[in-house]
Amino acid sequence: MPSQKPWKIYAIHHSHTDIGYTERQEKIQQYHVNFIRQALQILREIRSGRHPEWAGFKWVCETFWPVESFMKRASEQEKAEFAAAVRHGEIGLSGTYLNMSELMDKELLESMIGRIQSYGKSIEAPVTSAMTADITGFGWGYGQVLLDAGIQNLMTCIHTHHSMYPLWKKQQPFWWEMPSGERLLTWNGEHYMFGNDLGLVPGIGGSYTIKDELDTSQGVTFEIAETRIQRYIQRLEQDGYAFRFAPVMFSGLPTDNGSPNPQVMEFIQQWNAKHGEQIMIVSSTLEEFFTEVREHAANHPEDIPVHRGDWPDWWTDGVGSTPKHVQVYREAVRAYHKVKRLDPHCQTVSPDTMRDIEYQLALFAEHTWGYHSSVTEPWNPFVQELGVRKEAFAANASAAAHRALYDILEHKGEALLSPHRPMKFKLFNPFDFVQEDFAQLIMESWHYSLIKDGFEVRDVDTGELYPSQLRLASRGVIISIPVTLQPGEEKTVHIQAVPSSKFRTAYRNDYVGADRMMDLDVTSDVRAFKVTSTYIDTPFVHITWTKGDGITSWIDKRMDKEMLRQDRHHHAFTPVYDVTRAAKVEDQYEVRRKMGRNRKGSDAVTSTGVLTKAEVISEGDVYGTVELTFEVAGCSHYSLLVTAYAQHPRVDVAARIHKDSIWDPENLYISLPFGSPAVSKTEELWIDKMNALTRPRKDQLTGSLADYYCVGEGAAYVSADHGTAIAMPDTPLIQLGSLNHQFRLLHGDTKLQQDPAHLYAWPMNNYWETNFAATLGGFYEFRYLVAWGEQYQTPEAAMDACRSMNAGILTWRVR
Asked: Which of 105, 238, 329, 338 is the most exposed place for a label (fewest CB within 10 A)?
């Protein structure tokens, strides 16, 4: 029989793009521009004949951000030289703009991937492969965006620190099937610097990914490389690996954001001269590697399985370490969406402005959350400086997006501040879904004197009278009206001072005492809308709370159904706080590292909020609000503003928090015990992942994370005839797994079928030992908007309701 062809290791030389972890963001950008210049110089040296030992050198741009940065600084000759190197296969491009967190939404990702494809097309080198490094998962819609952009192949290099790869194994190719049924060829690979530990770069490498008996304190020698590479190939074969080739990523220096290093070619030549007949190493781009994978797939399709579903990111919990700025970011994204729909052809807002908004959003959504010593030395000015820079991307995006929105509204005739400005407002739905919401008509404080004795809100065109309610806010007046707008529909309403027909006198059935307290349960009180210190009752819902426990009942009156699950561990919107104490300051790093795939220690101390006070804040024709105050460890203040509406089955809950500054690793959860238990067949939990509707623990890759998820708009429990939509405008993380420290279960584990999957919002954490903010201290308000009814009996309808509630009704003053 003929001997088998030699093994082939595809050595893919890249620099991991990690913005702000090792240096200032501006310096990282400078580094990566220079890395491309270094790669071009290496290629010049090879062509000149001065370094024949470097022949075959190839460089892969892991992300497009360095390329885009290079193009802004390069000479015309450098640009032409770079394009030629890409066309000749000496430099490879990747269809990823940056290594992103799951904060990025579909529209933004499409725009950023579009930049890559536009450049590839401009130099006649279409980009068909992408790679990611470090990050540990992707929303299901991520793969669809890549496919839609012409990306056919995806290489992932997952970092298993506080995370894990899916499918129960690495170096595993599979067809990743999207909701559409289209498939992306995906290679679930090794760590992005695994090649350094194997010894591909002489003297540069260690034992980060390979734990063996060999001494690498002085780097990896050729002899160590021989041992490690041969052991690795043997291990793959013993594991039943179906291929005679494998990709190995490596960096020119033993660091993130490392430069090219042509010495790798000296090693490869030495290796191939000695071992090439058994194991050949080739310097490669992504395109060359995936060409071989596809050839194998054509001949042996059984070796590459199909896996369908979401790929939850273990590192998505980073968004909980900067909750204030994530909130700013998410509002900026909503403003960006409105700008795109109001000015789709950039007639008012310039294309450059839109590109800047997208750039600022993308840089905040990039996966790095701070400098590498944020936790161990939080007082360090460098730590604080880089943290502020990261946060500034959200602030800059917010400022640019809202400035663009305001310019568009002014162009559309917005009446800016001036004397005698009429109390007239335009209401507009720029989206492709129906908005059934409450418009907020905001005016300056001096308008109160005009309408304090009575007012009405009417449609200018039809004369329709809207129910309305006024509240005084800081330096202003806010009038709320219920409104329904079809996609693209516009209405104009006018607030007019009208003496109230209601007069005040004594009532025979007034059950409020002279002390202004209402604490009688009177059966003859038949009002349809009642707000008291112990319950809220509307035509749609009856909500009850008790001292100590909190919200214990939430009854859908039209279906006569309790909406809170009976097996809940915590009542609705009750805070749950845990902290893992470090024995001493020096332990702040180690106590976090040892958490592994848990987000707390085995000795974590948990505190459940205790309701101490309830107070009626407002009651009117449109809504009523009660404030519930809790005591919970870790917070100087925690209260809920619970607002129920008279005309709709909807309740808004705002959690107001004054978080203590605590250095120890901690988590804050908010209980959302809606829906049936996981074992029930009547309701299913749905979330949106980059616009792909997903059922957690059902529509996801086997072996993937099953504890928590990053949602785009919210979560919904949906049955055949009913649905509950929970919009989450501010905090994208939800928790389903146990809040206890324990062995974690991955999707596909049969024990998950018995797990109750209790739903919590997870707004805050600081558990990571390196680059999370060390403290969460400060003031916050996080909103959760709950709507329910038969109109939400499909996940699409329920998620559109979440989008609508999060976006709000676009409103502006007109003349």
From this structure: 238
DSSP result, 31-90 = HHHHHHHHHHHHHHHHHHTS-GGGTT--EE-SSSHHHHHHHHH--HHHHHHHHHHHHTTS
Question: Could you write out the DSSP letters of every residue in 536-587?
Answer: EE-SSEEEEEETBTEEEEEEETTTTEE-B-TT-SS-BT-EEEEE---SSGGG
Between the CA atoms of 290, 296, 299 and 301, what dihedral angle is there, to the nearest 10 degrees? -80
- With 0-12 / 13-18 / 19 or more C-beta atoms within 10 angstroms meaning exposed / middle / buried, residue 234 is exposed
Please give the Cα distance from 765 to 796 (Å, whole number): 31
Task: Write the CA distances from 43 to 47, 49, 82, 109, 267, integer angstroms.
Answer: 6, 10, 10, 32, 17
Model confidence band, residue 474 (pLDDT cutoffs 50, 70, 90) = confident
Tokens 């602030």 sit at which residue? 395
Res. 678 pLDDT band, cuts 50 70 90: very low
What is the CB neighbour count within 10 angstroms for residue 514?
5
pLDDT at 552: 98
Report whether 711 contacts 689 (CB < 8 A).
yes
Write the burial class of residue 47 (CB in 10 Å: 0-12 exposed, 13-18 middle, 19+ buried): exposed
The DSSP element (H or E) to which 473 belongs, if any, is strand 469-473
Helices 65-73, 106-122: crossing angle, 10 deg rounding: 50
Joined tokens for residue 736: 């389903």
- What distance in Å separates the CA atoms of residue 688 and residue 686, rounded to the nearest whole number? 7
Residue from 340, 348, 361 nearest 432 by CA: 340
pLDDT of 522 reads 63
Write the pLDDT tens digit of every residue in 640-650.
999 999 999 99
| Longest pairwise C-alpha distance within the chain | 106
Angle, CA 578 vertex, CA 573 and CA 583 arms, to 5°? 165
Question: Alpha helix locations (H) across 240-349?
Answer: 263-275, 286-299, 323-342
Average pLDDT on 162-173 reads: 97
**Dihedral sign for Cα atoms in the order 510, 516, 521, 526:** positive
Triad 256, 258, 260: Cα angle to 5°: 150
Cα-to-chain-centroid distance, residue 324: 14
Helices 323-342 and 381-411, packing angle to 10 deg: 30
Q: Is the dihedral of CA 393, 395, 401, 407 positive or negative?
A: negative
Does residue 500 sit in helix, strand or coil? coil
With 0-12 CB in 10 A as exposed, 13-18 as middle and 19+ as buried, what is 381? exposed
Q: Are 666 and 658 in contact (CB under 8 A)?
A: no
Contacts of 781 (CB under 8 A, 6+ apart): 654, 655, 656, 657, 730
Residues 6+ apart with CB under 8 A from 245: 7, 8, 9, 10, 292, 296
Tokens of 448: 């109160």
Contact status, residue 428 vs residue 810, Cβ threshold 8 Å: yes
pLDDT(274) > 80: yes
What's the DSSP call for residue 21?
T
Strands 476-485 and 469-473: antiparallel
pLDDT in tens, 484-511: 999 999 999 999 999 876 666 676 666 6
Please state, rounded to an integer, the average pLDDT across all residues of the chain.
95
Tally Cβ neighbours within 10 Å of residue 472.
11
Which of 768, 444, 470, 461 is CA-nearest to residue 590?
768
Residue 404 near residue 339 (C-beta atoms within 8 A): yes
Q: Are 13 and 250 in contact (CB under 8 A)?
A: yes
- In three-state form (DSSP H/G/I as H, E/B as E, the rest C), the secondary structure along 336-363 is HHHHHHHCCCCCCCCHHHHHHHHHHHHH
Whether 717 contacts 728, CB under 8 Å = no
pLDDT at 809: 98
Residue 764, classified by CB atoms within 10 Å of its CB into exposed (0-12), middle (13-18) or buried (19+), is buried
